[in-house]
Amino acid sequence: MLNFTIRRLLLAIPTLLFISLVIFLLLEASPGDPLGDVPLTVPPEVKERMREALGLGQAWYIRYVLWLKQFFWVEPLFWFDQVFGTSFSDGMQRIISFQSRSPVFDVIAQRVPQTLIVVGMSYVVGVMIAIPIGILSAYKQYSWFDQVGTFVSMIGFSMPTFFTGVVMIIIFGVKLQWFPSVYDTTLEVRDWDSFMAQVRQMVMPVTVLALYNAAQVSRFMRASMLDNLGQDYVRTARAKGLGERTVVLKHVLRNSLIPVVTVIALGLPTVFGGALITEQVFKVNGLGQLLITAIYANDLPMVLTVTFLFAILIVMFTLIADILYGVLDPRIRYD
């Protein structure tokens, strides 16, 4: 397993470099100008100096290599200095946003807590709901519970998050006024009242994303459980006199989790991408909303960095899913 992990990590290096190059070239070829919002009254020579100050006067391959150096060398050194009080990164140029003229990673660090609170909580809630529903739906196939679970899952999976989000805002935010329709990112939890205010404003965005995630995971869980419940080893375990709870939860569930692990692991980074729309609907000041505004403003360093971080998450969680295969299924060996 250790050799397999090391090989996969070494393979991830050229893979991520290729992904970063593709993203950079796509952004380079895309229409739009970071200085497109500059007033027409600005003289051309001043506009050209502004372009040079942003580094846009250099060739694309020079800017790409410079970005790689900043991402993999300068930024890690800077955060190392922040933690241990050293000064290795003094005088080095960090990745700077065209839009805010602030270091990109500082802006990302400000947005990550909001994304982790809302999106992370929604994924945890969705998985915790989906797995028991999938198990019971498979064990009680064609029962009323299975029928209701299938119906709710189809609704949650077929309706996009921007639609369910708007519906919840109209019903629970405007009509009933139970929850705030706009997420207050400036709210600080200091006492019980502020904590309850935080919970209230999280209810709708978390519910929207959790419903979508639970619908997908529960369907995979149900299908995997049904496939294993009919296997010979299940009949053998029952014939030996094992209790039904032991057969289902110890033998069937462990084998059924193998394909579901892939869905859960690969769904973690894609949730951040799916939150692009949900964060816009509820005005959550997270990474999704940051990426949307950066695209509108042609903020190439911000778009490139955030998109590449998503790619790193996908590669990392793919490796985690493969490792969990070997943990859950002793038949799988990475020799």
TrEMBL record:
Cell membrane keyword on record: yes
Pfam families according to UniProt: BPD_transp_1, BPD_transp_1_N
TM segment ranges: 116-139, 151-174, 194-215, 257-282, 302-328
UniProt xrefs under InterPro entries: BPD_transp_1_N (IPR045621), MetI-like (IPR000515), MetI-like_sf (IPR035906)
Subcellular location: Cell membrane
Signal sequence segment: none
Family designation: Belongs to the binding-protein-dependent transport system permease family.
Name of the molecule in the record: ABC transporter permease
